[in-house]
Target: Kinesin motor domain-containing protein
Amino acid sequence: SGYHRVLEENRKLYNQVQDLKGSIRVYCRVRPFLSERSSYVSTVEHIEDGNITIGTPSKYGKGCKSFTFNKVFGQSVTQAEVFSDMQPLIRSVLDGYNVCIFAYGQTGSGKTYTMVGPKDLTEENQGVNYRALGDLFVLAERRKDTFRYDVAVQMIEIYNEQVRDLLVIDGSNKRLEIRNSSQTGLNVPDASLMPVSSTSDVIDLMNLGQRNRAVGATALNDRSSRSHSCLTVHVQGKDLTSGTILRGCMHLVDLAGSERVNKSEVTGDRLKEAQHINKSLSALGDVIASLAQKNTHVPYRNSKLTQLLQDSLGGQAKTLMFVHISPELDALAETISTLKFAERVATVELGAAQVNK
Ligand code: ADP
Model:
């Protein structure tokens, strides 16, 4: 019967969720080369399971370094394959879990491609944001005899430690406050909250959000790589038998580019932006490291980004840090620095798991 099917599905999901519970997972994806030039030399020497080996060609002093994560996706992996690995995590939102997925990496490494997709969007190359919501709708429909789900989204941008609503229709640019409230589950209560029930609703809102992001970009070119953007999915599920209400929340975050800006080369606005980005990305790293070490004090309040994600980092929440790297030789220094940042998170977690044995 439908009821047993749902129970069985819940049990399966529960087992998958148990595997993920309380853990911080780290994935890595390598962007393909952007043109067919055969002269390109990749700094990625080898990928196997969760291992990636980065090499430097001999004329730069040959050497290599390996890193281990939960998963490494090579250049030929499709959007569908990437999504299918994240599916159990995303689906757990319907069972009332809080989830946070964030894309980290230097500008041009493929963060937006993974989360949103390329400019010429097709069904095949849609990123995680579209697929996640589409999948939640499918699963909610399958459970409709036993649960009633309401799904709503918010989309905001953090730029220079200021929070902006990306789902406004009138182009207003009001500064928003972050006020963590576990009661409503809304951390930014003044940001537009839009109910969605179909993939076409999602496409409309994503388009609105991208347009509003671009408006902000006129003053300074390509501001989008210097701001964090976050799609938040709020789910409320009512168990039709018991009347119990479940709430889950998922943040899908496309972070600002992590590249180190040479402080001697920039001044004014660019320097200020760079300082804000460095501050918030290191605050994120500190929060995650402190969670992984199971510290009692977690420094959420050090940046707007970590305040925003507070409910979805730590505790019972499930976090996926998705790092991106560019394969080109001229990106080598940033690639190593990205992988070291990720490794700091991954190894600490591994260490904690060993202590528990
Ligand atoms: P970021 O968000 O990190 O700045 P983008 O997602 O904008 O980087 O990616 C830079 C360019 O590379 C874009 O033109 C994007 O479409 C392309 N790209 C990134 N990842 C892939 C991929 N896996 N497959 C094909 N093209 C990609």
User: Anything to note?
Assistant: Residues 350-357 have pLDDT under 50 and may be disordered. Residues 31-32, 34, 105, 107-113, 118, 225, 257, 324 surround adenosine-5'-diphosphate (CB under 6 Å). The longest strand covers residues 147-159.
